[in-house]
Amino acid sequence: MNxxxxxxxxxxxxxxxxxxxxxxxxxxxxxxxxxxxxxSQAKERGCKLVEGGNVTVVEGARSAPxxxxxxxxxxxxPRVDPNDQRSRDADARSILESELRKAETRHAxxxxxxxxxxxxxxALDLRNPQRYMERTAEIKASLARSESDIxxxxxxxxxxxxx
Length: 163
Description:
Layout (H helix, E strand, L loop, with lengths): L1 H22 L5 E3 L2 E3 L2 H7 L2 E2 L32 H33 L8 H5 L1 H31 L4
Antiparallel strand pairs: 1-2, 1-3
């Protein structure tokens, strides 16, 4: 019998080495995107216990926060002739100015149609008061979109270099 136990000892040691870490794993708590096995820290932070299996967390390399950079093209980017760039900027400005004029014209039409919240009633509106209220709300929403469009176009124009 002594020989049987001696022959089982290496097998039992291997089993203990394999099972030991898994059996000895502490409880794991999840704190947002972080995991911890420190119960007191988890209790302080209001973390939740992770149940059902082992958790493996691999810590990634942390990079230093990037300093804000001016928009600089990479050295491999093709160079644009300054005259070509000025021409492109002028084209972009003329297109945006044209879009701004159209948007302002459309906004003026909507303001006139909205008539300070009391648009003129048409035949459909006279028969259906609910339709009138819906149309008024649609015009008001269109006015808000139009104002937003105009503000966006003006922001884009401000970003372009002046002539």
